[in-house]
Structures are given as C-alpha cells and as structure tokens.
Specification:
mainly beta, 1 helix, elongated, single chain, eight-stranded antiparallel beta sheet
Length: about 190
C-alpha cells in the first residue's frame, strides 16, 4: 500500500514541470532576409538561442538549454556523512523552421515556427522538511513543437513581444533510483502533452 501511494504521488508530480523544465521561447524578431539574432540567458539554467533568415519571410532557429546538474545526497543522521544517491542533469537541443512577417499589420511582427528537439531531463523527489531523499529520476526525450510570437515596435530601439509554445513530448530510456526498490531501467515510459 505504501509503495502504491508513493508511485501515485510520483505520477502526479510528473504531470507538472518538475520533471521536464521547458526552455524559454526562441523569439527571432527578424525584419528582413539576411537578419540574424543570437541571445543567451542564465537564471536557473543557461539558454542560447539563434535565428537566421536565409530567404524573405523564412526563419531558421536553433536552441540549446541546460538546467544545472544536480547531485542528490543522503545524509546518515548518526555520522552526518553524505552518500551520493543520484546524479542527473537536464539538457535539450532544438531546431526549427517557419514563417515570419515583420509588418503583418502596421508595426506588428508575427511568426510561426515548427521544429524538433531532443535531450534528457531529470529531477529528485525530496521531503525537504525532513531532509529525506525519496528518489531520483532521469529520462531522454523527443520534442516536437509549434510556437508563435507577436510583437510591436514601441520605438526604434524597443520591441515588445509575446511568445507561446506547445511541446509534444515523448520520454524514453527512463531510469530511477529510490530507497524502496533500488535502481531500475524501464524502456517503456511515455508522456505526451
């Protein structure tokens, strides 16, 4: 019963972004053929985005995102020694192509881009209040996506934009470790959203 409850809790957690950490939307904001754009950000992870327009109204994009590597330790309450329980990292790569129009309506930018990505995601389940690590999980994934953004020129130097992205994920090569059942590798595990 306890094991079943643990698996139910973990299944609910997998429905959120605790496992898959999405990268920011690559919003190109290109104006004409030959334009390019490179951006890098860092907060909880590092993201590098590039875009280029080889033809009028055609955009190519590429992105890399990494969420900081993490090692989960279990501490012996008597000796305070830490033992590595699980180590994971989250990396993803994406490429895409699409259509953009810098003047869909006066001073209104629009793009729509489809693409493919792949990578691996990981997370740890920790009862922080008690400092007890229950489990760690990692899986590889394929990601098919569709994104769009709109923007407007506020003046010659400032563009305000908004982007949204739908990801269709397929996880595989799922691995986990936990204090109850040890390490196992399951080859059939799929989540689609």
């Amino acid at each position: 019963m306890k094991r079943g409850l643990l698996y139910l809790i973990i299944s609910v957690l997998f429905t959120s972004c605790a496992f898959y950490k999405p990268a920011r939307v690559n919003t190109p904001l290109l104006q004409e053929k030959g334009d390019g754009h490179i951006a890098a950000t860092s907060a909880f992870g590092t993201s590098v985005n590039a875009s280029y327009s080889p033809l009028k109204n055609v955009v190519l994009i590429g992105s890399y995102y990494t969420y900081f590597d993490e090692t989960v330790y279990q501490e012996d309450p008597n000796t305070r020694n830490k033992t590595e329980l699980f180590s994971y990292d989250s990396d993803q790569y994406e490429v895409g192509a699409g259509y953009y129009n810098p003047n869909l309506i006066k001073n209104m930018y629009f793009d729509i881009i489809g693409g493919y990505g792949f990578g691996k995601a990981g997370t740890a389940i920790n009862l922080g209040f008690f400092n007890i690590n229950i489990a760690g999980y990692e899986a590889k994934f394929h990601n098919y996506f569709l994104q769009s953004s709109i923007g407007t020129n506020l003046d010659n130097n400032v563009i305000f934009s908004f982007g949204a992205k739908a990801n269709f994920l397929n996880f595989y090569d799922y691995k986990s470790t936990d204090n109850l059942v040890g390490y196992r590798d399951t080859t059939y595990f799929a989540v689609k959203s």
